[in-house]
């Protein structure tokens, strides 16, 4: 079953009791994040037995949460004491133990593989390789981007929209990325989904009081989905999505295209792929790179 053939509607989810754990796809203690693969056990549900991907992530601390802890409304268990150093386990109030969760359901095998931890490699893609291998592959192997159209057409996430320029030529929708909790400015992550072209950052400063000079504005190559979109993150934010081999600064893209209109049509690109990524496997199958 393809992504497009899968149903995009589901009953309201009030808990995860209908899911049975299959495997842990990613365990990232440094990010306070875990991603799992599960299956639906809901009897009578049209998606019974379907796969699901669930990402669990603890919220970062805020000044308000620290003040709540310092108010004394916690239970403390001493773990270690040595001279002036003490380590405790704290049992904080329930409202401070909120976990952000993202549910992908029904999930495809590609969703599962996207979140499964694998080795990564830097690959080289010439203009000829793009035309002969990458482009044909992308034309026949893509995630459904119906969720993008839902946002652009006002059928989803309306309450999250920061700015909506509806002009079909120059319009775009600016909204918080799902990877951001929408609160901690140091982790700010906003995405502009372009109707055709036209990117601005003034709305972010107006909404969050974060200056343009404090923003990292970039595109991804390879992108997660093939509809032009631009990423905005705070300079204090540190994520893999903005690392070399993945992110290209928007200002550099604009400068390069102004210097040479077909710059990216002729340039050899270098980017990172997981060794289980379907595109990586296609590169191996076509002899572009050797298998790891």
TrEMBL record:
A Gene Ontology biological process annotation? mRNA processing
Is Nucleus there in the keyword field?
yes
Keyword Nucleus tagged: yes
Enzyme active site:
229 (nucleophile)
Q: Which reaction does it catalyse?
A: a 5'-end (N(7)-methyl 5'-triphosphoguanosine)-ribonucleoside in mRNA + H2O = N(7)-methyl-GMP + a 5'-end diphospho-ribonucleoside in mRNA + 2 H(+)
Query: What GO MF annotations does this protein's record show?
Result: 5'-(N(7)-methyl 5'-triphosphoguanosine)-[mRNA] diphosphatase activity; RNA 7-methylguanosine cap binding
Q: Where is the signal peptide?
A: none
Give the E.C. number(s): 3.6.1.59
Subcellular localization is given as:
Nucleus
Q: Which InterPro entries match?
A: DcpS/DCS2, HIT-like_sf, Scavenger_mRNA_decap_enz_N
Primary role: Decapping scavenger enzyme that catalyzes the cleavage of a residual cap structure following the degradation of mRNAs by the 3'->5' exosome-mediated mRNA decay pathway.
What the entry lists under PANTHER family is as follows:
HISTIDINE TRIAD HIT PROTEIN MEMBER, M7GPPPX DIPHOSPHATASE
Q: Kindly provide the name given to this protein in its UniProt entry.
A: m7GpppX diphosphatase
């Amino acid at each position: 079953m393809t992504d497009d053939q899968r149903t995009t509607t589901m009953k309201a989810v009030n808990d995860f009791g209908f899911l049975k754990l299959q495997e842990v796809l990613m365990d990232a203690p440094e990010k306070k994040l875990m991603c799992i693969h599960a299956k639906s056990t809901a009897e009578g549900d049209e998606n019974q037995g379907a796969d699901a991907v669930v990402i669990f992530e603890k919220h970062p601390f805020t000044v308000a949460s620290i003040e709540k802890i310092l108010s004394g409304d916690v239970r403390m268990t001493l773990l270690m004491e040595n001279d002036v150093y003490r380590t405790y386990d704290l049992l904080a109030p329930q409202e401070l133990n909120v976990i952000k969760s993202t549910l992908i359901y029904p999930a495809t095998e590609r969703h599962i593989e996207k979140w499964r931890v694998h080795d990564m490699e830097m690959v080289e893609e010439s203009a000829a390789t793009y035309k002969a291998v990458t482009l044909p592959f992308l034309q026949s192997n893509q995630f459904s981007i119906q969720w993008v159209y839902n946002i652009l057409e006002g059928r989803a996430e309306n309450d999250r929209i920061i700015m909506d320029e509806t002009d079909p030529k120059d319009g775009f929708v600016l909204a918080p990325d799902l990877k951001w909790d929408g609160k901690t400015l140091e982790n700010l992550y906003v995405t502009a989904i372009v109707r055709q072209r036209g990117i601005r950052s003034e709305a972010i400063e107006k909404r969050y009081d974060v200056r343009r000079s404090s923003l990292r504005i970039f595109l991804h190559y390879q992108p997660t989905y093939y509809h032009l979109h631009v990423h905005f993150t705070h300079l204090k934010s540190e994520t893999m999505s903005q690392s070399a081999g993945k992110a290209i600064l928007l200002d550099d893209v604009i400068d390069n295209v102004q210097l040479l209109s077909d710059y990216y049509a002729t340039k050899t690109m270098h980017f990172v792929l997981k060794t289980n990524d379907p595109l990586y496997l296609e590169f191996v199958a076509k002899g572009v790179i050797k298998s790891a």
